[in-house]
C-alpha cells in the first residue's frame, strides 16, 4: 500500500498503521488536530526536524484547510478519500454454515476506499464461539481460504481491513455448541430465555484452568486472520458477549482471580490482548468495548470506571486502537432522546488511551464532524448508515443525501437483498 507517514514510525508500526505512538505528545496532538482538517493524500514532507512537528506545518496545513469534511490526514495513515470514516462491525448472517461467501467480497469492496478502515463482522474464534445462524468463522482452514478472496477484494481498492474476533459465551444455545453441550461463560447464570426471541440455553461456568484454552482460541484465530490477509483484528469486547461476561460486575460472579475486583474482571480481556499482541504484533490489534450497554443483560454498576480502567490498562500493550461505543447505543439500537446530545462520556477514556481512539454509535455526518473537530475521537465508526450507503465517504464529502436503511433486511440470509443492493450515489 501507498501510505507514507509524515511522523516518525517505530519499527513495529507498518505502512497501514493508523497511529504511530510517537505522535502522542501535546505538540503532536495540536498538529494532528490541524492535519485532520484537510483533505490531502498522505505526503511525507521531511520538514519535522528531529521528528518534531514544526510551526511552519501549521501554515502549510491551514493553507489547505477546507470546511466541513469529516477528515483525517497523513499522520494517522488514513488517507484522503476515507476521511476518517470507519465501517463498524456489522453481523449480516449470510455466511452459510459459518463459511464466508463470495457475496461478502462484493459487499465489503463496495464499501472500501483507499486508506479507509473496514471492520469485518463478528467472526467466531472456535466451535464454541457461535450463537446465531450463518455467522462466519475463522477457526478452520476452510474459513481461512474462504476469507482470502474477500480480503483481496478490499485490498484491491486500497482498503484497510480488520476482522472482529468473537466469542458469544452464554449468548448461545445447545444447537450451536459441539455435541449439544452447554455454552461457556464466566458464570452459570443464563440470559433470560426468550430475550430477543431466543430460548438461550443455561451456560456452564468456565473453570479457571480452562480460561487459557479460550485465550489460545483467540490467538489461533488471530493468526488465521493474518493468514487470510487481514491487516489486523479487533477483539470483540462489547455487546454482552463472552469478554463482557467477564468484564461486567452484574454478570461475573466468580471468586477466583477472574472475578471480583475491576482488575480481576479485566484480566481475561487483557490476557487476550497480550496473547494477540505477541502473536501478530500490537499494531495489528484493536479492541471494541461498550461499558454502558445493557445488551444481553450484561451490565456494569460503574461503567465510567470500567471504561477508564481498560483504557489505561491497554496502554501497556501499545495496541493500534480502542473502539468505544457511546452510551446512547444498546446493541444494534440507538436509544431515543439522548441520541441528539453532544457526546461526552467517552472523553476520559479518549484522553487516557494513547493510540487511535474510535467512537461509534448514533453518529451522522454533522455529529461526526463535531466529534472530530472537538478532538473527542480520531475516527468515527458508522454502522447502519454505512450499511445502507456503500459510498458513504463520498456522500459525506459531497454532503449528498443518504439512502435510508431497511431494518427488516439487516439479518436475512439473502446474498443480495438488503446487502449489496443499496444504490450508489449516481444510481440513487
Ligand atoms: C445489522 C447490525 C449488525 C451488527 N453487528 C455487530 C457486530 O457484529 N459486532 C459489533 O460489535 N457490533 C455490531 N453491531 C453494532 C454496530 O457496530 C454499531 O455499534 C451500532 O449499529 C450503532 O452504530 P450506528 O448508530 O452507526 O449504527 C451491529 C449493528 C447492526 C445494525
Ligand atoms: C523524505 O522522506 C522520504 C520517505 O519518508 C524519502 O523517500 C526521501 O528520500 C526523503 N527526502 C529527503 C530529501 O531526505
Ligand atoms: C444528525 O443528527 C442530528 C440529530 O440527531 C440532526 O440534528 C442533524 O441534522 C443530523 N445531521 C445530518 C447531516 O443528517
Ligand atoms: C424493506 O425490505 C422489505 C423486504 O425486502 C420490503 O418488503 C420493504 O418494502 C422494504 N421497506 C422499504 C421502506 O423499502
Ligand atoms: C443475526 O445475528 C444477529 C446477531 O448480531 C442476531 O441479533 C439476529 O437475530 C440474527 N438473525 C437471525 C435471522 O437469526
Task: Supply the key terms.
single chain; 428 residues; alpha/beta; eight-stranded parallel beta sheet; two-stranded parallel ribbon; binds flavin mononucleotide; binds 2-acetamido-2-deoxy-beta-D-glucopyranose; FMN
What can you see in these coordinates?
This protein is α/β, with parallel strands linked by helices and about 425 residues long. It contains 12 helices and 12 strands. The protein has helices at about 25-35, 55-65, 100-110, 140-155, 210-225, 240-245, 260-280, 305-315, 345-350, 365-375, 385-390, 390-400, and strands at about 85, 115-125, 160-165, 185, 205, 230-235, 285-290, 320-325, 330, 335, 355-360, 380. The strands form 3 sheets. It has an 8-stranded parallel beta sheet with strand order 1-12-11-8-7-6-3-2. Strands 4-5 form a two-stranded parallel sheet. Helix 8 links the parallel strand 7 (about 285-290) and strand 8 (about 320-325). Helix 5 packs parallel to helix 7 and helix 7 runs parallel beside helix 8. The longest helix has 19 residues, at about 260-280. It is globular. Bound molecules: flavin mononucleotide (FMN) and 2-acetamido-2-deoxy-beta-D-glucopyranose (NAG) (4 copies). One 2-acetamido-2-deoxy-beta-D-glucopyranose binds near residues 91, 93, 132 and 133. It catalyses: (1S,2S)-OPC-8 + NADP(+) = (9S,13S,15Z)-12-oxophyto-10,15-dienoate + NADPH + H(+). This is 12-oxophytodienoate reductase. Pathway: Lipid metabolism; oxylipin biosynthesis. Keywords: Flavoprotein, FMN, NADP, Oxidoreductase, Signal. GO terms for molecular function: 12-oxophytodienoate reductase activity; FMN binding.
Amino acid at each position: 500500500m501507498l501510505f507514507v507517514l509524515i511522523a516518525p514510525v517505530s519499527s513495529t508500526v507498518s505502512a497501514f498503521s493508523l497511529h504511530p505512538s510517537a505522535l502522542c505528545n501535546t505538540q503532536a496532538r495540536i498538529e494532528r488536530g490541524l492535519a485532520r482538517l484537510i483533505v490531502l493524500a498522505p505526503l511525507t514532507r521531511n520538514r519535522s526536524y528531529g521528528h518534531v512537528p514544526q510551526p511552519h506545518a501549521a501554515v502549510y496545513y491551514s493553507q489547505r484547510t477546507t470546511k466541513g469534511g469529516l477528515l483525517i490526514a497523513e499522520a494517522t495513515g488514513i488517507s484522503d478519500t476515507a476521511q476518517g470514516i470507519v465501517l463498524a462491525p456489522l453481523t449480516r448472517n449470510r455466511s452459510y454454515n459459518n463459511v464466508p461467501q463470495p457475496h461478502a467480497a462484493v459487499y465489503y469492496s463496495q464499501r472500501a476506499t483507499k486508506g479507509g478502515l473496514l471492520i469485518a463482522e463478528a467472526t467466531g474464534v472456535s466451535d464454541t464461539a457461535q450463537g446465531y445462524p450463518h455467522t462466519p468463522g475463522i477457526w478452520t482452514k476452510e474459513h481461512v481460504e474462504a476469507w482470502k478472496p474477500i480480503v483481496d477484494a478490499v485490498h484491491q481498492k486500497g482498503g484497510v481491513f480488520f476482522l472482529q474476533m468473537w466469542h458469544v459465551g452464554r449468548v448461545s444455545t445447545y444447537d450451536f455448541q459441539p455435541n449439544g453441550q452447554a455454552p461457556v461463560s464466566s458464570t452459570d447464570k443464563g440470559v433470560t430465555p426468550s430475550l430477543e426471541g431466543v430460548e438461550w440455553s443455561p451456560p456452564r461456568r468456565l473453570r479457571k484452568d480452562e480460561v487459557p484454552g479460550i485465550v489460545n482460541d483467540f490467538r489461533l484465530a488471530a493468526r488465521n486472520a493474518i493468514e487470510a490477509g487481514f491487516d489486523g483484528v479487533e477483539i470483540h469486547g462489547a455487546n454482552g458477549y463472552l469478554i463482557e461476561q467477564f468484564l461486567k460486575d452484574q454478570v461475573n460472579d466468580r471468586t477466583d482471580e477472574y472475578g471480583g475486583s475491576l482488575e480481576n474482571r479485566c484480566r481475561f480481556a487483557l490476557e487476550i490482548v497480550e496473547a494477540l499482541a505477541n502473536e501478530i504484533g500490537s499494531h495489528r490489534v484493536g479492541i471494541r468495548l461498550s461499558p454502558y450497554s445493557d445488551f444481553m443483560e450484561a451490565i456494569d454498576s460503574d461503567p465510567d470506571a470500567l471504561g477508564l480502567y481498560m483504557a489505561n490498562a491497554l496502554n501497556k500493550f501499545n495496541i493500534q486502537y480502542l473502539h468505544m461505543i457511546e452510551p446512547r447505543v444498546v446493541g444494534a439500537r440507538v436509544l431515543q432522546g439522548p441520541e441528539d446530545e453532544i457526546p461526552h462520556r467517552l472523553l476520559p477514556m479518549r484522553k487516557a488511551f494513547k493510540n487511535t481512539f474510535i467512537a461509534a454509535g448514533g453518529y451522522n455526518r454533522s455529529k461526526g464532524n463535531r466529534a472530530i473537530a472537538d478532538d473527542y475521537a480520531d475516527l468515527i465508526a458508522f454502522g447502519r448508515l454505512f450499511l445502507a450507503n456503500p459510498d458513504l465517504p463520498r456522500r459525506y464529502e459531497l454532503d449528498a443525501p443518504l439512502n435510508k436503511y431497511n431494518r427488516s433486511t439487516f439479518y436475512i440470509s439473502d446474498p443480495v437483498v438488503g446487502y449489496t443492493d443499496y444504490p450508489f450515489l449516481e444510481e440513487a
